[in-house]
């Protein structure tokens, strides 16, 4: 049913646009035609999906899609590029049940695909993801001590978050060979809070590139009943400088206004990262323990990061039920996977929408 609706919508768009914006037809189509294999070779497209019932097809090249329909030979119609742009093309047509493509059709498709690739190169993208395993070295972070199966065991925050972050780093590195995936520590070392933020700020970025910062921690409380996972972002009430004053040539008043505008956008984006991660946590580990939701705070590594940033609390080392989970390698893998899926979901949505704020 969904497939039917999509195709009907495509037809409606083509009919509506054709009526509202009648365009002159191209001249008589060339007699030179191409079959599907020749079309793919000429345009560089990777594959063609064809629906014989609706007489519609989609050419695919990477993330780019060009949807078209067949018509009468010699006529012209519209195709949709990446769900947003309309181009006028000579009609592909069926002849004795075989798809035929005018050579001019291939030319227009090639140009459209090239334009989409150029737009991708210029559009805002995530260039780097900073993974920050909290604490390390002489700083153990939170430590819980429990008697489990008759043995006293310790649950140490610095070890848990490094384990989860290492798994996250491995998956992100594999998924994004074109991005810089950076860990503020990859062993039992002690980078200071300032070191962590400085490493994030030292990543070179082009004008169309952005960066996100995810700090990973485990929780503790005097209340031994407290348990669950949560995600924090910077409180909108806290003000920070996100524009480099040294590189800004305008007045200080304008700088303050621009800074406030960019700060609000970073806050919005940080909330959306938090939402993406929380959705995946709820989906993947919600059956193991309670969600404590998304919260606002002024953690040092978050408030000093001039980029969208969140701090994730995996659970309470002070709670015996959470502690048992945090000592389970399979559960730590689930945490890693949930973080990965949340980040990937966020990156994908924002790269498609071009929604990130550029860092000046």
Brief characterization of the structure:
This protein has 9 helices and 16 strands.
Report on this model:
- This protein has helices spanning 2-20, 36-43, 103-122, 157-175, 193-201, 252-285, 300-303, 320-326, 329-353; strands at 33-34, 47-51, 56-61, 64-69, 76-81, 85-90, 93-95, 98-102, 125-133, 143-148, 151-156, 180-183, 209-219, 229-234, 291-297, 309-316.
- It is an alpha/beta fold and 360 residues long.
- It has two domains: 2-121, Copper Amine Oxidase, Chain A, domain 1 (2-Layer Sandwich), CATH 3.30.457; 123-353, Zn-dependent exopeptidases (Aminopeptidase, 3-Layer(aba) Sandwich).
- Strands 12-9-13-16-14-15 form a six-stranded mixed beta sheet.
- Helix 4 (157-175) packs across helix 9 (329-353) and helix 6 (252-285) crosses helix 9 (329-353).
- The longest helix has 34 residues, at 252-285.
- It is elongated, with a radius of gyration of 26 Å.
- The two termini are 47 Å apart.
- The relative contact order is 0.12.
- Mean pLDDT is 79; it is low at 1-30, 299-305 and 356-360.
């Amino acid at each position: 049913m969904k497939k039917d609706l999509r195709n009907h919508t495509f037809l409606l768009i083509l009919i509506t646009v054709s009526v509202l914006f009648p365009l002159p037809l191209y001249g008589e189509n060339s007699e030179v035609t191409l079959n599907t294999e020749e079309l793919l070779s000429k345009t560089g497209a990777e594959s063609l999906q064809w629906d014989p019932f609706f007489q519609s097809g989609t050419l695919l090249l990477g993330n780019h899609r060009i949807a078209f329909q067949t018509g009468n030979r010699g006529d012209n119609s519209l195709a949709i590029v990446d769900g947003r742009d309309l181009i006028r093309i000579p009609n592909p047509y069926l002849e004795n049940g075989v798809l035929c493509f005018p050579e001019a059709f291939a030319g227009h498709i090639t140009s459209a695909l090239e334009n989409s690739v150029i737009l991708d190169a210029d559009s805002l993208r995530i260039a780097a993801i900073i993974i920050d395993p909290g604490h390390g070295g002489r700083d153990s972070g939170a430590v819980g001590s429990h008697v489990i199966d008759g043995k006293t065991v310790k649950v140490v925050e610095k070890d848990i978050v490094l384990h989860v972050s290492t798994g996250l780093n491995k998956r992100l590195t594999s998924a994004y060979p074109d991005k810089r995936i950076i860990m503020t520590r990859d062993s039992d070392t002690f980078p200071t809070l300032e070191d962590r933020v400085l490493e994030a700020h030292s990543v070179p970025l082009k004008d169309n590139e952005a960066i996100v910062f995810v700090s990973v921690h485990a929780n503790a409380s005097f209340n031994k009943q407290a348990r669950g996972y949560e995600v924090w972002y910077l409180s909108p009430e806290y003000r920070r400088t996100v524009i480099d004053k040294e590189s800004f040539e305008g007045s200080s008043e304008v700088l303050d206004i621009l800074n406030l505008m960019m700060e609000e956008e970073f806050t919005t984006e940080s909330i959306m990262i938090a939402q993406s991660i929380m959705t995946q946590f709820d989906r993947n580990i919600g059956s193991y323990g309670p969600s404590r939701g998304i919260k606002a705070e002024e953690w040092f590594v978050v408030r000093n990061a001039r980029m969208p940033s969140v701090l994730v609390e995996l659970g309470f080392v002070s709670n015996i039920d959470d502690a048992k989970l945090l000592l389970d390698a399979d559960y730590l893998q689930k945490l890693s996977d949930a973080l990965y899926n949340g980040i990937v979901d966020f990156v994908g949505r924002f790269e498609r929408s071009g929604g990130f704020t550029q860092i000046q």
